[in-house]
Amino acid sequence: MDAPETRELAYFVAVAEELHFGRAARRLGMAQPPLSRAIQQLERRMGVVLLERTSRAVSLTPAGRVFLAESHKALDAVAAAVRRAQRAGRDVPRLMVVMKPDGDAGLLERIMPVYRRDPDALEVEVVVCGIGEQAQMLRDGRVDLAFLHAPHDDLGGFDTELLLTQDHVAVLPSHHRLADRAALVLADLDGDPLPRWAGPEEASGPEVRDPGQLMQLVALGQMVAVVPESVRRHARSDVVCVPVLDAPRSSILLAWPERTRSRAVAAFVRASTEIAAAGPVIETVAAP
Amino acid sequence: MDAPETRELAYFVAVAEELHFGRAARRLGMAQPPLSRAIQQLERRMGVVLLERTSRAVSLTPAGRVFLAESHKALDAVAAAVRRAQRAGRDVPRLMVVMKPDGDAGLLERIMPVYRRDPDALEVEVVVCGIGEQAQMLRDGRVDLAFLHAPHDDLGGFDTELLLTQDHVAVLPSHHRLADRAALVLADLDGDPLPRWAGPEEASGPEVRDPGQLMQLVALGQMVAVVPESVRRHARSDVVCVPVLDAPRSSILLAWPERTRSRAVAAFVRASTEIAAAGPVIETVAAP
DNA sequence: TGCGTCCATACCTGCAGAGTATCGGTCGAT
DNA sequence: ATCGACCGATACTCTGCAGGTATGGACGCA
Known about the structure:
The structure is a homodimer. Chain A folds into 3 domains: about 5-80, Arc Repressor Mutant, subunit A (Orthogonal Bundle), CATH 1.10.10.10; about 90-160 and about 250-280, 3-Layer(aba) Sandwich (D-Maltodextrin-Binding Protein, domain 2), CATH 3.40.190; about 170-245, Periplasmic binding protein-like II (D-Maltodextrin-Binding Protein, domain 2, 3-Layer(aba) Sandwich). A 5-stranded mixed β-sheet of chain A has the order 4-3-5-12-6. In chain A, strands 10-7-11 form a 3-stranded antiparallel β-sheet. In chain A, a hairpin with a 4-residue loop joins β1 and β2. Chain A is globular, with a radius of gyration of 24 Å. The longest helix of chain A has 28 residues, at about 60-90. Chain A is built from 8 helices and 12 strands. The first copy, chain A, has about 290 residues and is α/β, with parallel strands linked by helices. Chains A and B meet through α1 and α4 of A and α1 and α4 of B. Chain A binds a DNA duplex (30 and 30 nucleotides) through α3.
């Protein structure tokens, strides 16, 4: 069969996600009948039933589930093609880098001067996105590079370079019952409200978007948090940080789309690995 | 901007590859003027000039080069979406595995019985493709798994599991001047005709499609060949195999599309790593 | 200068995609 | 059992655009 048009993929995705032709049509800004027909035609041409419909409910067949996931990938690839070409066509091409707030653990400011020395270096534009959005921005071509976090982010489709692996610390109000412990384990925090990181995750406490907010809320006694060591840099005088012995270590990785041939990306990766190899900065108190 | 239709991507790819609107139109089975218009409209909507045209020649802009590579990826993703859904919709879903002739070094027949014991196992259909076609078949969704070869194949976009790393041997006619050497280096073979592996590679000798053909041609004195050790299994009595000390080692990897969630694929990978961990079979001469 | 090449423009046509109205099946309330 | 609400499919109409033909106009070459 000949390939479906991207429009048809978008139609299918809408229906498969809504599981309701009427709502899907509204979401697509069109009437329901042409949508029904478009999906029928798609199924006919593919020779596969994607949706099971009764007059009461719509559900996905196994093939439909596969096609939904694959359609997302394909639509991402199309969007990425456009965005990357547009970026390449700009008069001053830029290297776009994305991270969540503090997602680079301070590495970027050490990477930048090294990168700028490279003859292939371009202007760098840093995008700070919401938590958990980095991978999607890389997939759909809005950025060239992302600071991702293992094991939290989905690394599928990317090449990566490991930059840093960190232990975790608990951030506690200074009057907290565990504040003077030298170390603790996760079980010690049972019952304490933990932050709900902005995004579709599950936890008990208030929603948090960046380290500053987090420190604020901890200081207020609203919650406690378990965070990578690097976040310690943002600690205020009215909170304390205590190592958590059994929190799984997390890593910061630099990621970019596979099969990328861009010299600018390659140069940035080179600079980053150089910094990573140099190891973490030993933070010292400056002598007068 | 709204996403371009796959048809438009295909049009652009044709023009970008032919660098000639007339030929591209013929290849697409359409007339030249609507093709010209479609590309113009694509550029207008994207807001990027993709092609530089004079009345004598067409060439790609930097943005056009990026868009060509990205369009290929996107079209592959669309084709893969359709094929994977079609496969998932079959009444008896099958696991499709591809390799070039002897591309598995005999591992598959050891993997199969282990795989079949897995509760998630499906029927396995093995596709033997031309040399160098494996990765493309995996990318466009015609197969679920491929035996690839490092450093020859492009692993971009795949998850992989290393199965086997091998040294190389030279296959020589038994009367060859080097036939009684215990070992040799590549430079020893300077001047001898080497096989031209079917596909777009460069070499001197006759075209070769599989190990049987290769042995035949070596036996006839038409050429010599440097091949992974596993090919030795196909050696006939009228050829000799001599280790080559300085040929870069090559690896066989099992590859599958990233972010694959299929249980059947996961089970096959499990079985394969089990076999790989068990190590190569020690080939012994059976006692009478 | 005249000819061949090649992309763009002008103009026309048919069909496919989108809209409106309506049907028909299913569930739930009474 | 009946009615009404809901929801997807069907029937029919219309319009925009993809695609075709003819031609223009720029450029290179003999």
